[in-house]
Amino acid sequence: MKAEKEATSKAKIISTILLFVSLGSLNSDEVLAVNMTIPNTLIRGSLGGEALLSVRYSSFSLDLPVIKWQLRREKSVTVVQSIGTDIIGTLRPEYRDRILVFENGTLLLHNLRLSDDGTYDVEISITDDTFTGEGSITLTVDEPISRPYIHMDSSSVLELSENVILNCSHDNGTRATYRWFKGGKPLTNVTRFQMSPDQKLLTITRVLMADDDIYSCTVENPVGNMTSLPIRLTVYRRSSLYIILSTGGIFLLITLVTVCACWTPSKKPKQPARRPRSRLNDPSQRSPIYHTDDVLPKTEHNGINSVTSLYILQQKREDLNSSGPILQDPSMDDSSSNSIGSPSEFDNPPCYTSSPNYASSTGSPAPSSHRYT
To answer: Degrees (nearest 5) of the Cα angle 330, 332, 334?
Structure first.
């Protein structure tokens, strides 16, 4: 009896275990009704091209799946919703004639725009209002690179110049990155080769003869890359004569600037214009005035003027004798007084020289000395 009871209890335990296993398998099948996989979570598309957002799902149900695609924004935007391949409702204007949904849930976008860039969420369910499969794919849309080129101010420089800047530019392209090459070898940030944060600008400080080479840049973005035409940087050796002349020119310039800064023109007061004076009023135009107290008047060839001149001479002699002794001119004797009226005696009249008499403060004439010839 005991053996039968033990066998019965063992059979119950085994049946219970099998029941739980079967129930667990049924629940797991219900949870995994939609099994979705995404082969590639990052898709790169070019402007005007196509992008295939590929998904796959599996289910034990034979019903058509409900597929919903949304573009993640601050507020998610519904791109398309469909039952199988049949689109439900009306598409937004920006997606009309640009969307195609496949049976496995894959979404194809035509004629890509820059606004299509973003993350897309997909949900797939077999029964209404229950989304059992979820996933997301990131799409990048870029404009292809075109016509990259290098620009610099001068293709030839002197050695030991302060700096030379090379600018890598291009006509079109989004999310571009740059790489520089010297002689076909990549350049990196070193002491004399400095690049901007986006590496678009290459600055060479204090150019040396070793920098004489061919330079090029490569521009790339998620949808492609292009390399610019190489450009030659020619470096000339700086001669000693050039250094001397440049240094002398700088010194001369500094000297001129200093002189000009320190020099100030003298400001002379303007003198009023002199008015022309008449000849009578201008003292400089007058004939010199001599004191002719001791000078005889002009002798004329007549007896009256001769007598007058002789009288004045005798009067002067008396005045001088009264003031002191004077020398008697030997040429003058009594015979000269007898021939007063002869005109031949006065053809050459005597000359008298006297120092000018200056009146004293009292008005009396100062004594003067006379010399007679």
So the answer is: 115
CA distance 94 to 180: 40
Asked if residue 33 lies in contact with residue 59, where contact means CB atoms within 8 angstroms, the answer is yes
DSSP sequence for 201-245: EEEEES--GGG-EEEEEEEEETTEEEEPPPEEEEEEPPPHHHHHH
What residues form DSSP beta bridges with 82? 67, 87
Distance CA 365, CA 355 (A): 12
Q: How do 35-37 and 56-58 pair as beta strands?
A: antiparallel
Which residues, at least 6 apart from 279, have a Cβ–Cβ distance to it below 8 Å? 285
Cα 136 to Cα 120: distance, rounded to the nearest angstrom:
5
Distance CA 305, CA 311 (A): 10
Helix (H) or strand (E) holding 140: strand 133-142
Task: Give CA–CA dist 314/285, Å, rounded.
Answer: 36
Condensed to tens digits (0 to 9), the pLDDT of residues 76-121 reads 999 999 998 999 989 999 999 999 999 899 999 999 999 999 999 9
Q: What is the pTM (predicted TM-score) of this model?
A: 0.53
**Residue carrying structure tokens 């150019």:** 207
